[in-house]
Amino acid sequence: MCFHKNHRVITATASILALLLIVQLFLIAPNVAAQMQANSWEEKFRAIPRADLLKEYMRTLSAEPHHLGSAQDKKNAEWMRDKLKSWGLDAQLEEYNVLFPTPKERVLEMIAPEKFIAQLKEPGIAEDPDSTDANQLPTYNAYAADGDVTAPLVYVNYGIPADYEVLEKLGVRVKGKIVIARYGASWRGIKPKVAYEHGAIGCLIYSDPKEDGYYQGDVYPQGPYRNETGVQRGSVMDMPIHPGDPLTPGIGATKDAKRLAREDAKTILKIPVLPISYGDALPLLKRLRGAIVPEAWRGALPITYHIGGNEDVKVHLKLSFNWNQATVYNVIARIAGSTYPDEWIIRGNHHDAWVNGADDPVSGMVALLEEARAFGELLKQGWRPKRTIIFCAWDGEEQGLLGSTEWVEHHAAELTQKAVAYINSDSTGKGTLGMSGSHTLEHFMNDVARAIPDPKGKGTAWEAVRAAREKAATTDEAKRELRERGDLRIGALGSGSDYTAFIDHLGIASLNLGFGGEGGGGIYHSIYDSFAWYTKFSDGDFTHTRALAQAAGTATMRLADADILPFEFTNLAGTIDNYVDDVTRLAAMNNAASGIDLQPLRVAANNLRRNADVYDRALRTAALSGKKLEDVKALNRLLYQSERKLLSDAGLPRRDWFKHQIYAPGFYTGYGVKTLPGVREALEQKNWSEAAAQVMVISKTLDAMSAQIQAAAEKLQVK
């Protein structure tokens, strides 16, 4: 009896102390109390996404082919709009009219030394009911040129600039010939671009089984990899010049937009280009003679790889297209901000596919939808974001980032003023969390990853990434950094998905997220990218898809509700130091570059680091003071406008649409990023005068960023 009485007294005393502590938190430390409430909303959010709903969304959205311009594409957009409305969001369709060629005629045949007619078709298979769906787009490359050409065939490996240097040493020319390149090592559109620059009159691109087939593992339907009839469709628009509608560069492709004549469009290719399967490529390649290719050029087909180029193999390629306009249907949904409605957090994924697209893009799209549903549930419980959240389901991404680019160009003036950040996903699967983006958000994204449970139940998503990187690390330096550096590095953004217009054109800080790294992906852009493939060989239980919804949604919520936006500059400064080291080493590799003065880059990078440290100290001091800042709104504006300071109005040489001076897709990589691109690419092209000029351009942008950070630090004055 006595024990229970004492227990009641102790319990009552503890309850009173706990109550006093809570009161103290609310009266004396409102920021701590607010953080506790924010954490509570976050936990509620992360508990809401459901794997069974993700699966049902995928079943619906991938049930039929839904490429740009198809009836199903519009139906899917309307279905998503209506879902978003039912969850309490303000949702609508925004339309644009874009140039979208579709095949009218496709012929590929070998006419010497024997006759062979390529199949150019992916047959249905019994194990995959979607493989026999009607309304599938044929296998082709969008924005290739019309053409009817007959010429000898030359094998050019991956068809990148370095491969043509090898051909030149071997005395092989491609002028007046048709080239055949294998997928890999660059974005597909680079291959015909470089071929045309060397005088080729046609280009074939095939999927070699070494990178994308039986060499990797069992092929579909027995395994996840590309079978002999699988073909990778895709755009070959010259997107390193600019993405989006070829006829309306720099402006939104509204109905009344002024359009270029098709012959004046810079991003439509000049030669016919066709993707083929390795089943169709084998009869062509096995007949080639001439020099045996270098070892690095050899794929996994059961042949001896020859370069060809003589009259031994002659092919006929004929392509013609319907050059029609198609309507883009972007789905745009909003949750109005309660405190800062004119500060926008934008979350996007595309919804169009080349065929059924369960993996690309529906796996990412369903995660976004479940995030939106979860926020709708929180709205019913009384939560309101401080900043406006905008959910975007983009159309026309596959053809050249059409929907996102046209929307960004159309709303550029407003986005420049209001956009805080853009969070992108594209597709997701099994594995660890992939994180790329603006390095001002690197520390922030590390904190988000620490809050997300690993889908496999092994700690957090952050811990799973670190463990995977430790396992893959090959140098002592890399292993040491993983042990000692507080944050995991995130990758820099090139292109290839819908963040491009946000970061590269308008300087809006961006992130790209998705799980992956395990399992094969051999159905990319084929008819076999289906619900059956995804549920059997990818994230069949949708645990990783759910984790993506939790990660992207948490990032969105934290940005929307932050009192002080979580931009951080010391990681950015350290990363830029590394980039300056890279271009310094690149310049040192060529004696002719010794006259280029790179010191202004080093000075600007050092200045950036000093100001980043000043801001970091000022932020810590302000947080410890517990006092209210003079003008939080002005501080936040300086923070989210900081990425804009890394732009140059003149843009990059020969491609002024790309204005970011720290990150850009490479002119000859397409998707792959080039950091400090103006200097790096000038050095690679041995254009010494341009490299010197670009040193000054980048230095000025770094100085502008330093001044912005300094101004933000000055705003961290307290009452």
Question: What does this entry show, briefly?
Answer:
The chain has about 725 residues and is of the alpha/beta class. It has helices spanning about 1-30, 30-45, 50-60, 70-85, 160-170, 190-195, 210, 280-285, 360-380, 395-400, 400-410, 410-420, 440-450, 460-470, 475-485, 500-505, 530-535, 545-560, 570-590, 600-625, 630-640, 675-685, 690-715, and strands spanning about 90-110, 115, 140, 145-155, 180, 200-205, 235, 275, 315-335, 340-350, 385-395, 420-425, 430-435, 510-515, 665, 675. The termini are far apart.
How does this model look, in words?
This protein has 719 residues and is of the alpha/beta class. It folds into four domains: 2-31; 43-98 and 327-459 and 490-561, Aminopeptidase; 100-324, 3-Layer(bba) Sandwich (Glucose Oxidase, domain 1), CATH 3.50.30.30; 570-715, Transferrin receptor-like, dimerisation domain (Transcription Elongation Factor S-II, Chain A), CATH 1.20.930. The protein has 23 helices and 16 strands. It has helices spanning 2-28, 30-47, 51-61, 71-86, 161-169, 190-197, 209-212, 278-285, 358-380, 397-400, 402-410, 412-418, 442-451, 461-472, 476-484, 500-505, 531-537, 543-561, 570-588, 599-625, 632-640, 677-684, 688-715, and strands at residues 90-112, 116-117, 141-142, 147-155, 178-182, 202-206, 234-235, 273-276, 314-335, 340-350, 387-394, 419-424, 431-437, 510-517, 663-665, 673-675. Strands 1, 2, 4, 5, 6, 8, 9, 10, 11, 12, 13 and 14 form a twelve-stranded mixed sheet that branches. The longest helix is centred in the last third of the chain and has 28 residues, at 688-715. The N and C termini lie far apart (55 Å).
